[in-house]
Amino acid sequence: MALIGVLGGMGPLATVDFMRRVVELTHARCDQEHLPMIVANLAHTPDRRRAILGDDIDPLPALLAGIDLLNRCAVDAIAIPCNTVHHWYPQMRAHSAVPVLHIALASVAALPACIRQAAVLATRGTLVSGFYEAALHARGIDPILPSAAVQRDIDASIDAVKAGEIGTGAARLARALAALKRRGVAVAIMACTEIPIAALPLGDTSMMLIDSTLELARAVVVFAAERGWVRAA
Amino acid sequence: MALIGVLGGMGPLATVDFMRRVVELTHARCDQEHLPMIVANLAHTPDRRRAILGDDIDPLPALLAGIDLLNRCAVDAIAIPCNTVHHWYPQMRAHSAVPVLHIALASVAALPACIRQAAVLATRGTLVSGFYEAALHARGIDPILPSAAVQRDIDASIDAVKAGEIGTGAARLARALAALKRRGVAVAIMACTEIPIAALPLGDTSMMLIDSTLELARAVVVFAAERGWVRAA
Question: What ipTM was reported for this prediction?
Answer without folding.
Answer: 0.94
